[in-house]
Amino acid sequence: MASKRTTPAYRCTECGWTAIKWVGRCGECQAWGTVAEVGEVKPRTTPAAHVARPAQPIGEVDATRASARPTGVGEFDRVLGGGLVTGAVVLVAGEPGIGKSTLLLDVAARAAREDRQVLYVSGEESAAQVRLRAERIEALARTLYLAAETDLATVLAQVDQVKPTLLIIDSVQTIASADIEGAPGNVGQIREVAASIIQIAKERGISVLLVGHVTKDGSIAGPRVLEHLVDVVVQFEGERHSRLRMVRAVKNRFGPTDEVGCFDLSDVGIVGLPDPSGLFLSRSPEPIAGTCVTVTLEGRRPLVTEVQALVAPGAGGSPRRTTSGVESSRTAMILAVLERHARLSQVRQSDCYVSTVGGVRVAEPAADLALALAMAGSALDRPLPAQTLAVGEVGLAGEVRPVGGVSRRLAEAARVGFTRAIIPVGCLDGSPPAGMTVREVTDIATAVRLIDSPGRPVDSQGRTSAQS
Description:
468 residues; AAA+_ATPase; 3 domains; 24% helix; 10 helices; Ribosomal Protein S5, domain 2
């Protein structure tokens, strides 16, 4: 009898995408020259097995096993949805040196102080190096166990011996299995290591925190299937020159994905910031031309942020456009809108420098109006009135569009001490916070006239009382 035919298999070495024939470009990650033959795939079928745990009606499933247990770090719990769930696997990704290991070592020590068995596996540092960091951030605990391992079988043996309730692996790209060919960190190794760790976590009810590397473009290194297998994916963000670190959930099976945790990275560790708004404001006693404050929404959290701009005469040739913390394309667009619809012709050949205070990155369209007023104030050399903020999106036609969450933004601004607000028309539900004066504008020209005549009322056509 003729034997069954086998089909050669080809796999992308970058993302793990498979094909039945060779192609020059991967159909998943679009990389060239990464598809290679990995052998032959024999068609097979899996017979039915004996059911050890029969299916239950959904109403009879015990939901208490999926309840979250706080880690003791409030900002981290906010992102996770209340804490760590038993048997959950959390992938923590971020750039090197951003604070991932420091935060997880703090979480491990807090869990160990509650008489929980915690195993910290380091594949990048020795146990002595981890101990030195633990001393620096005061993260020593009696039931916190350290192991410097890079072999998957040895890591599983450590789990059998310690029997932890919390397992931390730093990082998943450094662990390798002897049964899989290739160096640690390649597609096959990451898939095997993640699958083994997830299986033991679900079977024994162990909460697992995996540290993941990122590529130069900021995406998580390894196959995309890694993000599908884990329960929670948490991303660290922050600029190297800033102490501020933001942690947001990219995927969360147990809570929302629109929460953001704020941390301060210092010499003594990483500390949660329950009220980070003050970090993004300058402390000038008098109003300064070229500055404007806005309120951005990072997830559900409103952050009061100051935008600064300097519009100066250029030295000739093409004007310079330099930005820090804001998108350069957005800045160029708003400059064009100011020139066309606010009649600020001086910005055409002027150099423009825009920056945010505190190193925070602002990408929300709701900050357009503050950015426009900061640049207009610098061009006119006139400041906005003291304790004034602006929220709104600026369109190409010069209109100021409504944005969401205005009531929440104004409440946060009033709590910090702001008394005036410039917002789009029709986006405020109810009355403004007590002690706050709100001015609604329909277009950018009206908003710029508030800088020219801050003490005079402006009508719906943008005219001041003297003009009318």
